[in-house]
Amino acid sequence: MKIMVVCGNGLGSSFIMEMNVKKALTEMGKTAEVDHTDLTSARTVQADIYIGAADIVGQLDDGSRTIVTLENMMSIPEIKSKLENHLA
Amino acid sequence: MFLDERSANLLKLLQQTSNIKMSELESKTGLTRRQLQYDIGKVNDWLHSNGYQPVDFNRNIGYFLPGEILEEDLQVKAMKKTYVFTEADREKVFYLLLLLSKESLSLYHFQHIAGVSRNTALKDIQKLKEKANSQQLHIQYSKLNGYLIKGDSATKRLIIEQLIHEILSSSNSELIVDCIWGDYAKQIQHIQTQLEKIEHQAGIRLTDERLQELTYLYLSTDMLIEKKETLHVINSWEELVYTPEYQLVEQMLETDAFLAKWSQTERLYATLHLLSMNRVKDVSPLKEDNIIRDLLQQVVKEFEKLSCIHFQDKELLYQQLYVHFRPAYYRMQYRISAINTMKERVQRVYPELYHISRKSLWPVEKAIGCKIPEDEAAYFTIHFGGWLRRQGTTLDDRKRAIVVCPNGIGISNILVYTLRELFPDLLFLDVLSVRDAAAYPLAYDLVFSTVHLRTKAALFVVPPILEMEDKQKLRQQVMMELYGYTTQSLDIPSILKIISQYATIHEPNQLEKALQTHIYAHTQKINKHSLEGAEKPVLEELLTSQTIQFQSSVSDWKEGIRAAAQPLLELGTIEERYVDSMIQSIEENGPYVIITPGVAIPHSRPEHGVRSLSMSLLKLEEAVEFAPGKSVQLIIVLAAADSESHLRALVQLTQLLGEESNLQDILESSDKSLLLDYIQKYSKEETS
């Protein structure tokens, strides 16, 4: 399982999200490979789940990718509940 | 057949260079293509009438003269017989006439001497009036006395000195000299003989130009004293009475080469100018000249220190420098300006050498109490450069480094001192602030910085004070950078070839990819050297009272970002365009920078205007909407210099904002110190 966190520049918010996703995964007792990148590179990177702010990952949604959008990227409960459906 | 000054200069230029392109002509003369074509036409006319072939042109090599032009034709025909004064020449001639003439001058005098119409002469004098005014001199006219020039006698002297220098170094000096001093040929000869005698007695030899300049200066002074245009007593000159040159000047003034009675001040004036003229030889014993010897030794020591070069034959160097330094010292001490025509060329061709020479001159600056003029610094550059060439050392092949340190001057000095000791083979050009580094004009190969910077040169991030282990590590890193392997030497296809000779490769594509990532990762590391103490600053180093602002409200989110970034613009860590880029990024991608309700971290890519890693924070009392329903009270600008160095602080910021109660506390309080306390507390948090 590979989770790619995406943001506009791949420097700030995606890294913050990556940390919070990792934290959420630990709390859920799940393991997955988590990485972060910017929007442009995200189009060429393979991952099982793309996660990020609605404005950003919305641009990746071509019907073939699994997209998770976050309202509050600092909220662990939100991340947990949204990831739950995709993690077996 | 006339040839004006501009065309005569063009002809000289063509004579000196075997072939020259239009673009070179333009840059050398400062004229436009049109003007040059016009001048070439004139030159051709002149060439034709003097029996030469016209200027030739070849598409590949440019313009050239097909035949050699005899020197005497150039001198006589181009300059003397066919010469007409240019406006600039007339200005000099008229100015000097006004300053020196014993008789009253009428407009007719000016017309006659320059061969121009009444109108032109009037126009010239009007212009000269303005120029004189700007130099605190005033040209007046009365029916009875004609044209007169009024003003301070010391100012007049200064202008006469400059005019003499300009006239003697201009291309048609002979004619102008003839105009002004035509009646004094005998006296000129006399004075020059006297000066040659002084050279002999003092054991010096002036350069030819200076000898000539001094001759005309003494002649002019004699003329001035005769018309009672004398200098006031200047106390600071009195110590010159004790120089041997003063005695010689006194003896010279006794002779019949001079007509006027020179006061002591005038004698001192003559002495000072004799002392300050450049010479090619000086056998007066250096050992007796303690002040100058001390200063010279200090300057040479400083130069050796800054350039990390050791001069050989130092005694000989001192002797040679002394010849130049003695007059230069008097010039600087008594504020006599010297024009070094090679200044710009020196600065352009030897920027590093010039830079270091100028810096080495601080002991002289201290002694004379003013900055060394650029012209004088350029002279020293020439001397040091010549000596280096003599001993076969050049600065060119040394690696150049700058040190960037936004800390105080004390810290910067310690850092630079340590680095110099650590890397004697590097040329350290300067210690700079982040802002200055961005605009630094000289080229450099290495940057030692206490902050993370964006630079094309190899960057080494160091703590301001280096400990023993830091030094060893840094030394290894620098050596690796300078003498270790580079990416080019690791050419993957050739490595694969070598491997295939000795082993069977099962998956060549995979292997190639793996090698690529490995080498890439490795070079990444090499290019971004940083020592642990300086590596990845903590939150409190970036968010300080200097970069935190509280404000009641902003009109919209764009203004919010601009306001939040202001401290970083002032510190010079980001450029204006970085602010625009942050705004553009949000316009394109939406308000993704809102990491949690109420908090936005606008940022863009390092290459969009980041100079060094930095952060700033703006707290608003009244929230501003970044998008409908997305209001923000905390705007934290992040300026990352690369993709790594900011992460430590970012993690700490996330941890701080991750506790909802913290955020509430911060938003509710109007006390900066509460926010700073939080920042300090979380700066101690370490990532797991």
How many strands appear in the DSSP assignment of chain B?
A: 16
Radius of gyration of chain A (CA) equals 11 Å
**Structural class of the helix and strand makeup of chain B?**
alpha/beta
**From the structure provided, what is the oligomeric state, counting identical versus distinct chains?**
heterodimer
Fraction in helix of chain A: 25-40%
Please give the alpha-carbon distance between the first and last residues of chain B.
Answer: 91 Å
Name the helix and strand elements of chain A from N-terminus to C-terminus, one letter apiece: EHEHEHEH
Number of helices of chain A: 4
Query: Per DSSP, what share of the residues of chain A sits in E-state strands of 2 or more residues?
Result: 15-25%
How do the strands of the widest beta sheet of chain A line up side by side? 2-1-3-4
> Which segments of chain A are poorly predicted (pLDDT under 50) over 5 or more consecutive residues?
none
Share in helix of chain B: 55-70%
Main beta-sheet strand count, sense and barrel state of chain B = 5 strands, parallel
Average pLDDT over all residues of chain A: 83
SS strand fraction of chain B = 5-15%
| Uncertain spans of chain B | 76-82, 523-528
DSSP summary: helix tally of chain B: 30
* Radius of gyration of chain B (Å): 35 Å
Biggest interface, CB < 8 A: A-B, 23 and 28 residues
